[in-house]
């Protein structure tokens, strides 16, 4: 039985913890809760899935679907979905959502695997002692005696944390992310919009989704808008109020909304989704130190979906088991 540190409690880190439960696992994350970008945000009486929006039912052979079913952390809904709103392409789509917001999926997995954890603990340094064991350091604490360190945070952060142990000059092309501005908004009255989610609402809005279909307790008409990655990159430091007014104007003009807005807020995700995955570039499923003691994985390995993030952890776990 090995002592294994997992840095990052997103879907890849949770997948590793789930699949390596026979070992002594300790999870670290800078956030106060697990899930990473699988985030459900609460503002007063408003609720928003402002990170990952849903899980596709097309990933039917994925282990993640089995785990969600085992822990009863998700449910399938059938919605009117615009595959391309600008081109008037629409369909009925089955999707998996969290029982109480998307974050309830990683939270349920985290609660059920019952591993040692240190949330609100950002790891800033890794060192190796004479016994070939690793210590992890936060700003206030040292955590000792790990046989393996599995780093499951955004690629650039992983690289910085592990640069003393991994030769990154051997990596010719690096994975990259697209940033996305997300806007959350609510109206006092129902706007009676039949399409509940979709792509390409506008050249500057790549995705939109109604939140009432997820949260029955919402009394106002609530939506999440994802600005396009191109717009976000070109306006990465835009004033939040200006961004929110712009997104609101597009949404209201598109659906001819006359109702009074009751809430609006934005959030910037710098590492929103994988643009070029490491597997696409290298045909490899992780990055590792020469001694096979430190491994880097995450949603940047296989692709941008929740299933890809989970699969990346599952693939690495199989390799860890044979070491």
What does this entry show, briefly?
The chain is an alpha/beta fold. 26% of the residues lie in helices and 35% in strands.
Number of helices: 9
Order of helices and strands: EHEEEEHEEHEEEEEHEEEEHHEHEEHH
Strand arrangement, largest sheet? 5-7-6-14-15-16-13-17
Given as residue ranges, the uncertain stretches (5+ residues, pLDDT < 50) are none
Question: Can you put this structure into words, describing what you see?
Answer:
- The chain is an alpha/beta fold and 323 residues long.
- It has one domain: FAD/NAD(P)-binding domain, CATH 3.50.50.60.
- The protein is built from 9 helices and 19 strands.
- The protein has helices at 11-19, 63-71, 104-113, 155-162, 229-234, 240-255, 278-282, 299-302, 306-322; strands at residues 3-7, 24-28, 40-43, 46-49, 55-56, 74-84, 89-98, 116-118, 125-128, 134-137, 142-146, 148-151, 176-187, 197-202, 205-210, 221-227, 261-276, 287-288, 294-296.
- The strands form 4 sheets. The protein has an 8-stranded mixed sheet.
- A hairpin with a 2-residue loop joins β14 (197-202) and β15.
- The mean pLDDT is 95.
Essential attributes:
323 residues; 9 helices; alpha/beta; single chain
């Amino acid at each position: 039985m090995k002592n294994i540190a997992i840095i990052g409690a997103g879907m890849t880190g949770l997948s590793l913890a789930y699949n390596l439960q026979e070992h002594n696992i300790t999870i670290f994350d800078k956030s106060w809760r697990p899930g990473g970008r699988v985030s459900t945000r609460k503002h007063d009486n408003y609720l928003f899935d402002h990170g990952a929006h849903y899980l596709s039912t097309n990933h039917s052979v994925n282990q993640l679907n089995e785990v969600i079913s085992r822990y009863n952390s998700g449910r399938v809904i059938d919605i009117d979905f615009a595959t391309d709103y600008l081109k008037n392409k629409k369909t009925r789509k089955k999707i998996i959502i969290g029982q109480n917001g998307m974050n309830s999926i990683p939270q349920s997995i985290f609660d059920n695997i019952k591993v040692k954890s240190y949330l609100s603990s950002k790891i800033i340094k890794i060192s190796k002692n004479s016994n070939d064991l690793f210590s992890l350091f936060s700003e206030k604490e040292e955590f000792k005696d790990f046989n393996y360190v599995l780093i499951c945070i955004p690629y650039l952060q992983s690289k910085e944390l592990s640069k003393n142990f991994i030769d990154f000059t051997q990596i010719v092309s690096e994975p990259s992310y697209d940033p996305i501005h997300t806007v959350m908004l609510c109206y006092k009255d129902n706007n009676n919009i039949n399409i509940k989610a979709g792509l390409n609402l506008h050249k500057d809005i790549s995705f939109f989704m109604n939140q009432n279909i997820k949260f029955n307790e919402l009394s106002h008409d609530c939506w999440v808008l994802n600005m396009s990655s191109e717009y976000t990159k070109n306006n990465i430091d835009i004033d939040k109020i200006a961004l929110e007014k712009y997104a609101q104007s597009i949404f209201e003009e598109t659906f001819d909304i006359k109702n009074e807005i009751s809430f609006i807020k934005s959030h910037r995700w710098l590492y929103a989704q994988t643009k070029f995955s490491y597997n696409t570039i290298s045909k490899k499923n992780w990055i590792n130190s020469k001694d096979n003691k430190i491994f880097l994985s995450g949603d940047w390995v296989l692709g941008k979906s929740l299933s890809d993030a989970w699969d990346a952890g599952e693939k690495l776990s199989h390799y860890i088991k044979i070491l």
